[in-house]
Recover the amino acids of this structure.
């Protein structure tokens, strides 16, 4: 994942203008250009994120046998119902949903942009071959390699995934509905406002039931990014700010990891990625 705009990547400065979430042209998001730039090939930084998220979810369910989407299991969350997953701001990225696939009875891909909704709907029947490299990293854990009922990953993805168009600021009306969740590069990559960043994290967390395992990823120090011909806003966050935004909604330890860019060198406008893994509290 690389959300640097080309000029920022070249080290040229770009004046950052304030832009709130509702002001950006999300429907003009060029999903194909985004996939080509970020996910056509598996990058080492995304592989590190996959390792971390895979292990977090696998450990959670290993410690709680019976709480999974397997036939005969009793579900997760504290209600013992079906396991419902959500990926907030799914965009044109399938790997957060793939990371939840072994355990979920249903996965909601929640997304605002009409273009990305169309992309996700198009991937549902038979996702593209380049996602296999992402799946292969997950398959280093048994839960992914041996899907319930020996189901093939594409068949399970098709059966469990539903795409829902919506605005994450309205997620409040579904408070506590989902039993596990992901939100990758959304809260800090949708507005220049720190207030909206914090509200984005809060809406995601409030959508999860108490105890639900979650994984969230953030760009560190982003000043906005270009997708195709369109520029989108971001607010620059640090690992400490991510921790401060997540911890009030989490029980026990939250694991926060900073992931540098491939090659290790820091460049202007892009300082790396931050991943937060934990469990929702009841706040
Ligand atoms: C940088 S992209 C990240 C996409 C994807 N999650 C990923 O990991 O690559 C930000 C995504 O947030 C979505 N988004 C922006 N504002 C949103 C909102 N208010 N509600 C839901 N999704 C939103 C955008 O359409 C876009 O898909």
């Amino acid at each position: 994942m690389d959300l640097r705009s080309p000029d920022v990547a070249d080290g040229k400065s770009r004046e950052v203008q304030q832009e709130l979430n509702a002001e950006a042209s999300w429907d003009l998001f060029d999903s194909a250009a985004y996939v080509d730039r970020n996910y056509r090939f598996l990058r080492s930084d995304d592989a590190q994120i996959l390792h971390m998220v895979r292990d977090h979810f696998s450990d959670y369910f290993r410690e709680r046998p019976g709480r999974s989407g397997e036939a005969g299991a009793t579900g997760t969350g504290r209600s013992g119902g079906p396991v419902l997953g959500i990926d907030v701001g799914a965009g044109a990225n399938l790997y957060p949903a793939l990371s939840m696939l072994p355990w979920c009875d249903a996965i909601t891909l929640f997304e605002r942009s009409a273009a990305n909704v169309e992309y996700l709907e198009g991937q549902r029947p038979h996702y593209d071959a380049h996602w296999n490299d992402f799946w292969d990293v997950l398959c280093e854990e048994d839960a992914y390699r041996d899907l319930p009922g020996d189901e093939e990953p594409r068949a399970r993805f098709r059966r469990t995934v539903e795409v829902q168009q919506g605005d994450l600021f309205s997620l409040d009306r579904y408070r506590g509905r989902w039993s596990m969740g992901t939100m990758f590069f959304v809260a800090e990559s949708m507005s220049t406002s720190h207030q909206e960043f914090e509200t984005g994290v809060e809406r995601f967390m409030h959508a999860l039931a108490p105890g639900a395992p979650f994984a969230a990823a953030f760009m560190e120090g982003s000043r906005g990014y270009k997708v195709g011909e369109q520029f989108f806003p971001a607010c620059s966050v640090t690992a400490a700010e991510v921790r401060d935004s997540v911890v009030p909604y989490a029980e026990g330890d939250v694991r926060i990891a900073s992931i540098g860019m491939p090659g290790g060198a820091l460049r202007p406008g892009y300082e790396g990625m931050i991943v937060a893994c934990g469990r929702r509290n009841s706040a």
Notes: The chain has one domain: 6-66+82-280. The chain is about 30% helix and 20% strand.
